[in-house]
Amino acid sequence: MTTTTGTTDAPEGESEARRATLRDVATLAGVSIATASKALNERAHVRESTRDRVLAAATELAFTPNQAARSLTSGQTGTVGLIADDLDGRFSLPILMGAEDAFGTGQVSVFLCDARGDAIRERYHLDALLRRKVDGIIVVGARTDARPPLVGRIPVPVIYAYAPSTDTTDVSVVPDDVQAGRDAVSHLLSAGRQRIAHISGDAAYTAAQERATGIASALEAAGLELVGGSAQFGAWSEQWGRGAAQRVIDQYPEVDGMICGNDQISRGALETLQRSGWNVPHQTSVIGFDNWEVMTTGPSPTLSSIDLNLEQLGRTAAELLFESIQGQVEPGIRRITPRVVTRESS
Amino acid sequence: MTTTTGTTDAPEGESEARRATLRDVATLAGVSIATASKALNERAHVRESTRDRVLAAATELAFTPNQAARSLTSGQTGTVGLIADDLDGRFSLPILMGAEDAFGTGQVSVFLCDARGDAIRERYHLDALLRRKVDGIIVVGARTDARPPLVGRIPVPVIYAYAPSTDTTDVSVVPDDVQAGRDAVSHLLSAGRQRIAHISGDAAYTAAQERATGIASALEAAGLELVGGSAQFGAWSEQWGRGAAQRVIDQYPEVDGMICGNDQISRGALETLQRSGWNVPHQTSVIGFDNWEVMTTGPSPTLSSIDLNLEQLGRTAAELLFESIQGQVEPGIRRITPRVVTRESS
DNA sequence: GGAAACTCCGAAACCGTTTTCGGAACGCTA
DNA sequence: TAGCGTTCCGAAAACGGTTTCGGAGTTTCC
Question: pLDDT for A231-243, tens place per residue?
Fold first, then answer.
């Protein structure tokens, strides 16, 4: 109740008054406002006793410098914008967390905007960010498919995360899905698997294609090929995983490893295998992508997965943004290396 | 590449110059900066031809008003802080989305802070928010257990969401877990179930207790009691759900309904039931809490669940914050009504 | 004992807006 | 033609800080 400033007009509440300003501090300390400023910022030569008086005054008045006023002179606001395409998607989050982390608690503040995949909304948020004079912007996509860059002349650096910009002079950070595919294969190979099937997700996704590419290339390098000859594309769902796995074991009972497009498909496949009496991982290994904790650690056996290191992706994006703000960075696409998380299913 | 301002010092790039300011617009339009301001804000009496010239100049220079400067005079920044306790927890997200939604795209911008359940971090973020003179703050907890209020004198309104403040003079918005429990019971009762078991989560959580309370009261009102006499408390995991469900059907084979502490327990229970050859929902209904899409729609049959309407909770929090900024709002705890989402398992 | 070199401190300009208030130009009436 | 109202516009004062630059006071040194 000491919060709102909705005092009707009762003059009694002098204590409720406006927030203390530098002038107030200076007056209380008996110095000029210039000196107060210097004292608080540890600037120049200010006698120690003077500084102490100023600091004391500042704490007494609970003084917090007005960042807006400060930004006016410095030109920098110490804020960045983060435009996400879909917040409820689970990919934005770790990236956002990584970025938040890299910016350092308190130093840089993050404006969060959810564009929901809508270009109009995106434009709207962008304008708001520019009005607020953010020092830079990170654009986080919902899928790894390349997206058109932000339109208009943007007077601050922009980093594209997860979904790269189609403009190669922009700076983008994406997961290395091809490598992720290769890693999945070599993981299964090192577990002694040779007859591997690939149950993928929606073929329209770049991620599906790139993972398939990595898988194919790694198998070829090992002189092998996919059971069934090629990947099965479908949807990113458990249901698809269940059905596709059923068809695989019906047609190719010799299969001893399954690489699934994501952890949901992986979970669906596991369920089918178990229901059909297959022993995972003894008879068949199963591995997915994304390392979505709730999917991978829920079932028994727990599911191995390729983690795309999205938090690190977010941190990298933030670091790149920093560098861009300071000077130039090399344009182009950076790929974040994935890592294998081994659990009971392989 | 036209983004960074890292021009070493080459004076050639006059085009790369600093962002256009109101003065530039005024000069270009041949008017005073006061008039330019008025024209852009549709203020006072400005001759139409003059306004048109100013607007033309503004668009030509791609002028965006400096919000910081504007805030200096208005005193309001049009920003709010959102301090979340754990971003990766799935409860903050919908709340955050609801809030973002209610604030309206562009009008109000949201500073996102992740305190990770650490009071020090929280303090740090809070200071940063106050420096930036946010107009208000929403604090989102990770659990519904009451939490101590923010420390220190906060000169702006604060709304506590999901986790209420222990201070009853604060404003809090929480899900109505007691009602959620009641709803679960009445849903099963209306499906003709009478012998209901309750497999809950960690008893240390207020949510677990409140749901149990609601369940108990609704059953009592119907003249029934829980199979086994009381709720089974354990963990919020699928594994616990599997084990607990097994014990329930072993000991009480007459059970015809299971209320599970959350969707993960629910899923675990479903798996056990199916593996034991029970038919869901014919033989036994299953319902959980939270309505976590990936958990509820993944398995077959899909799982019914009580949705706590977290997005609406977020919207409500945002609206309350608005009202607090304008004037006063009644302190205390608001409870958001849940809703039953019926799927195949009941 | 006076000049030079320091050490502290404050007046004032500035950042980019909004807003008040007075003045100029104009049309109209007497 | 003087007087009066309107209508537009601009000078200037905020807003809350930072920073430059010069002035006053104190040492140090010859």
Answer: 999 999 999 999 9
Mean pLDDT of chain A: 91
Let me know: does A53 contact A110? Beta carbons within 8 Å: no
Give yes or no for residue A46 having a pLDDT over 80.
yes
> What topology is assigned to B14-65 in CATH?
434 Repressor (Amino-terminal Domain) (1.10.260)
Measured distance CA(B208)–CA(B229) in Å, rounded? 17
What residues are paired with B171 via a beta bridge? B159, B332
Beta-carbon separation of A64 and B131 below 8 A: yes
Which has the closest alpha carbon to A258: A303, A206, A294? A303
- Nearest by CB to A133, from B68, B72, B114: name it: B68
Q: Give the pLDDT band of residue A92 (cuts 50, 70, 90).
A: confident
pLDDT value, residue B18: 66
pLDDT score at A14: 37
The set of strand D positions with any atom below 7 Å of a protein CB reads 7-12, 14-21
Q: Do domains A78-175+311-337 and A177-307 have the same CATH topology?
A: yes
Contact status, residue A226 vs residue A285, Cβ threshold 8 Å: no
What CATH topology corresponds to B78-175+310-337? Rossmann fold (3.40.50)
Topology annotation, domain A78-175+311-337: Rossmann fold (3.40.50)
CATH fold of the domain at B177-307: Rossmann fold (3.40.50)
Q: How far is CA B132 from CA A75, A78, A97, B158, in A?
A: 15, 10, 21, 15
Low-confidence stretches of chain B (pLDDT < 50) are 1-16
pTM for the structure as a whole: 0.91
Return residues with beta carbons within 7 A of strand D: A 18, 21-23, 33-34, 37-38, 40-41, 43-44, 63-66, 69-70, 72-74; B 30-35, 44-47, 49-50, 69, 72-73, 75
pLDDT digits (tens, 9 = 90+) for B56-97: 999 999 999 999 999 999 989 999 999 999 887 788 888 888
Distances (CA, A) of A269 to A84, A125, A212, A261, A286: 31, 41, 18, 11, 8
Which DSSP string do the residues of A246-304 spell out, in sequence order? HHHHHH-TT--EEEESSHHHHHHHHHHHHHTT--TTTT-EEEEES--HHHHSSSSSPPE
Q: What residue is closest to D10 (Cα–C1')? A: B32
Phi (first) and psi of residue A95, to 5 degrees? -65, -45
Q: How many CB atoms lie within 10 A of CB A222?
A: 13
What was the pLDDT predicted at A42?
83
Residues of B in contact with A87 (CB under 8 A): 93, 96-97, 100
